[in-house]
Design goal:
The chain is mostly helical. It is about 80% helix and about 0% strand. It has 2 helices and no strands.
Length: about 70
C-alpha cells in the first residue's frame, strides 16, 4: 500500500481526530489508533530533542559566565 506524509499542527490533528470520532467506531478505530501512535512518538522525539538543546544552551551560558 502506498503511503503519504502529512505535516499538521497538533490542533489540526485533534480536529481530524474529533471528526473521526463522529464516525462509526468500527470504521475508524484503526485509523484513530494509528494517528495517535504516530503523533505520540513524534512528540516524544521532539520533547527529547528540545531537552537536549536546552541542556546545550545551559552549558554554553554557564561556560560564558565562568569565562571558559
Amino acid at each position: 500500500m502506498e503511503t503519504i506524509t502529512l505535516e499538521l499542527t497538533i490542533d489540526e490533528t485533534n480536529t481530524i481526530l474529533a471528526g473521526l470520532g463522529e464516525q462509526p467506531y468500527i470504521k475508524v478505530v484503526d485509523l484513530i489508533q494509528k494517528i495517535q501512535q504516530q503523533g505520540a512518538s513524534q512528540l516524544e522525539t521532539s520533547t527529547s530533542e528540545n531537552h537536549i538543546e536546552k541542556q546545550k544552551e545551559l552549558k554554553k551560558a554557564i561556560s560564558k559566565k565562568d569565562g571558559k
